[in-house]
């Protein structure tokens, strides 16, 4: 930077002061041309310029000494003196000679000659100072070729060009210096950088250093470009004129630029070498961090695999179970790729070591450890597979032996007894037994000692018991075969008298007691508790065992599917790597989507499946397992309640990338919605399997348990179904839970009638009924309108708009109405409100009437019990206030429900025979006032009638008749209850015979057991007999 300042001062104040040529001995020549303002230049500026000019030549040239040429021809002696004094005091280099062209005017030349002699000692110069009078004298000291034209020389010189070159050279030199310093500083920074311990930090550091390095390289390229352009500028005269000879200054400039370029190249080369080393170290550090990270992951996975393999310690309790465990282990082996990953990571470590990684001492032990653990896990896996294969082999041997024994027992049981009485029949039966024994082959078990020796590794106590039972079963069968063969041989050898061998009963084949559910009895086939014939028993047991196998296999598959859904979908919703794929509506909605599926999975995995497997060999007793776990199975109600919400959320987000990615990872062909339906399908499947088991278990020990289990499962399904309908009710302001247990629900056609005052008004006189969905609770009956919703799946489930509710304490029923066996009446408030309900079928009607009867009867019994309590505890009429209040409520309730004077008896007996009184019009049918419509029932005749012919039927006034049924031709089959005769009477004649008489069917059937319409009110209920207008 100081050189550039000096050049700038040279350009500004010393326009003609420069280096021009060389002396004979190569001394640099500095010319001080005429400059009028020389005295105005400060000492500092003068010193800077001289210092710069003396530093331009090479060291060898400056060592010889400088020749100064001071041109003062047009100046005065004072200027000559001042210049010499300043040079003597400020010149920084070696001087060889000072040549002064003195003033040319006569006066000044004379003064110069005189005064120079007197003042010579003042200059204090150690070199000669020669005063020259002309240029010719100058040429005697310096060759003309080294002088410019103004000094009579021939050298071509451009001061501006010289200044330009020097400025460029000094600028380039400064750039080279700064570049070298920057590279050195960056190199120091790189060398002092500590290597990070994390992958991300190492990656960032490598990226940062690489970016800085690229910027450094760009600065180097800029400097090299500038130096190349400067070199071209210096060489321009030679390029333009090949014969051009450079002067010494140009040659030195050329050498300076070349030297700077060489320094720059060397600096760049050294920096590149250092960067390669540093970059390699950073890359190796990053490789090491990746290796260490992968090592930790693989190490954890290997530990997990070891722990998982430790869980495969079971040998199974049946062939299917052993196959399932083996398939599970094989599937796990296929899914777990940690061994392959371990081998790849070990290979990666070896490659790093081969490439002379600086952390070889750290990598080598990890690679060795990975190989050791991987080999241990691999050996453990092979050992587990061999162990399970051995267990499977023994299980299948036991299965084949058991089947061979079963077939042998069946063969004994199925041989026709009558045909064995003859010689030929006995021979054939004997040959059949011999062939069966000869073809035993591998099906027959060898001695136990061989089995204990061959399968010692897999035999636990349970497995040993299983082997012993099958072996005992085989020995029993062979003993029976031996006895049968002896008998048949006797029959074949001699037929002295008829012999009737008895086919052995299967229950006698095994004398050992039934095994408990907790102990597997693999070989057991027939049970002493069954009373069927041998063939039926054996075939039934085979079918039962088949259903049991299906139950276990589907249960295991069900558990695996639930686990797959929970791990492949539910767990992934908490995986940060998958969070970006989850849409906003699905965020934090795992419990809505999956409901209590985790609870269901844990129950089946940890409890239910294990308990079911204990009944593998006694399937007829599996009903006990269901009964013991029936309370736990009610968790399905909660899942089904949540299913509509889950279905709605699924439909909203089913096309999102999250579900697609999870399905892709699991390699499922079906979407998540199919698996969310599995719990609903499973609880339904239990019902079907239990039905099948019950069909083949009749007469067996566990048949009652199976029936109870089936009933309970159906109850759960009904409860789930009912609750699904209940939660769809809208518009009900009360609390549904306060209405008691939901007993029944279904859709009906409903007509309504209302009585206002003494008039009876049909509700809109409608012929078309209202479609209502009825919900019968213990305390209320709800009328709702069914509304179908748009959508698919659970979104298409109906909803119910609440319309009306009836308190069951104020309800009465009439079993038959309007002559239609599918209709019945529900009424309240002394028949001011009557609801005629038509069921889809007569069976549905009967079921509903019976259920309502149970509710009303229960309330009646509760009321009667309350009254009997007070009657027994308070014998006198001096009763307490509480009793009086309770009895008042009781009587008031009875009156509110439509009781009259004739019906206050607490026991409505059959003395009224089920008829109604004309004094009480509550049961009259509003439609009969407009047009009489007959219905089946009992009536009192008010006129006489007689039929002639074969079907003679005579009735007279006062007779009691029963309308049995209506024919297709408009006639009714009528039975005279007084004479027990029947006959057909036209409907028109019947209307005249019975007049306004109407049959009132009550809580019982049309035969009339004497119980009238039943009503309940408040906390008590009682039957009553209401009398119609039929004349006695």
Automatic annotation (TrEMBL):
Region of interest called Disordered, as start-end residue ranges on this chain: 1001-1032
Entry protein name: Mcf.2 cell line derived transforming sequence-like b
Xref: PROSITE patterns: CRAL_TRIO, DH_1, DH_2, PH_DOMAIN, SH3
Residue ranges of every copy of the SH3 domain listed in the record: 934-995
Similarity-based family: Belongs to the MCF2 family.
Domain DH, chain residue ranges per copy: 543-723
Domain CRAL-TRIO: 1-159
One GO MF term: guanyl-nucleotide exchange factor activity
InterPro entries assigned to the protein according to its UniProt record, in alphabetical order: CRAL-TRIO_dom (IPR001251), DBL_dom_sf (IPR035899), DBS_PH (IPR035534), DBS_SH3 (IPR035532), DH_dom (IPR000219), GDS_CDC24_CS (IPR001331), PH-like_dom_sf (IPR011993), PH_domain (IPR001849)
Keywords: Guanine-nucleotide releasing factor, Phosphoprotein, SH3 domain
SMART domains the record matches: PH, RhoGEF, SEC14, SH3
Domain annotation PH: ranges: 735-857
Gene Ontology, cellular component aspect: cytoplasm
Annotated GO biological process: intracellular signal transduction; positive regulation of Rho protein signal transduction
Organism: Astatotilapia calliptera (Eastern happy)
One Pfam family linked to the record: RhoGEF
